[in-house]
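Memo to structure team: turn this sequence into structure tokens by end of day. - J.P.
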Amino acid sequence: MDNLTRKKRSWNMSRIYSKNTMPEKKARSILHKIGYRFSLHRKDLPGKPDIALPKYHTVIFIHGCFWHRHKGCRDTTTPKSNTTFWKKKFSYNVGRDIRHRKNLKKLGWKIIIIWECELSNEEKLKNKIKRLLIQD
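Reply from structure team:
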């Protein structure tokens, strides 16, 4: 196999984006439609939340089901090759998410997690966001 073919076939994690992904853009669009204003990727908060709503002292993380291990979701698969690496990677991701949530709660922030698979039902997601933002 020549280098060009190998390059095309190899899966490159450097192509995985952490900001301004399509799921983030869709969630932001939904928030705008229902009238919420927000800031993005607040570096002064633990975990640099995807969305921050300071008025509601709430942050929103848009989690990919694969990377953040959405329990019970069909998209939460584990690759068949190099499973030791993937299990370690997923374990680290989940642990990091837990640490960020704990630190945000200590600072008094409310946390909403939007899973990538939830973005397919816009009405249901709108209701979830509204419900969680008005809760005390």
